[in-house]
């Protein structure tokens, strides 16, 4: 037990990798004020705002729509900065003609307008043109109902440990698929509703400060997941 406690202490930085705010994500009930408060109260070091970016955001001027999309992120970040919580930009994309979702880390605000441009072009075109050494593109909850597996050459990994309590993401099947295909693994609460906060947190040695730190941690494969106090070693160490 002492050895286990030492491991937890070593991986002491806690990050939520998948969270949605209202009103930008219409399915979320969590305001920026709620987000900053509850993850601060949980003692988290960081929360990644991965609001939905889909065809609804292509209506109108792309620059203006990107600015509107970023409103919740900026508001949450301002509140997080005041309390010591790192609020980090991510995105969850859904392309025209598909129900699949894709999480993107390693981005900055100027990338949102670029991503809007690709929403009618599909994951393969997006990966081909947008992928760089600084970002990661992962399929979110790929074994959930109505999802189809993305081509392996159009993703860097999958969200294996999606712990949204209202959905069956078939975590065991996702974990096996990731291992069999050598994919990077992510996980998160997929936070939308009060009371569900912090169900799945990433634990790492380093506390991430921005979206690019998230990429470096995930690429290192040196992290754990904390599922409400149950610790998961995603790569079978």
The geometry reads as globular
Helix content: 25-40%
Highest-level CATH class: Alpha Beta
Number of helices: 7
Poorly predicted regions: none
What is the arithmetic mean of pLDDT?
A: 97
Structure description:
With 237 residues, this protein is an alpha/beta fold. It has seven helices and twelve strands. The chain has a six-stranded mixed beta sheet with strand order 4-2-1-10-11-12. It has a six-stranded mixed beta sheet with strand order 3-5-6-7-8-9. Strand 8 (157-162), helix 6 and strand 9 form a beta-alpha-beta unit.
Which descriptors would you attach to this protein?
alpha/beta; TIM Barrel; 6-stranded mixed beta sheet; 237 residues
Write the layout of secondary structure elements.
Layout: H1 2-10, E1 13-19, H2 32-41, E2 46-49, E3 52-53, H3 62-83, E4 86-89, E5 91-93, E6 102-105, H4 111-117, H5 123-130, E7 136-139, E8 157-162, H6 171-180, E9 184-188, E10 200-204, H7 211-220, E11 223-227, E12 230-232
Parallel strand pairs: 1-2, 2-4, 3-5, 7-8, 8-9
Antiparallel strand pairs: 1-10, 5-6, 6-7, 10-11, 11-12
In brief, what are we looking at here?
The protein has 237 residues and is of the alpha/beta class. Helices cover 32% and strands 22% of the residues. It has a single domain, classed as Metal-dependent hydrolases (TIM Barrel), CATH 3.20.20.
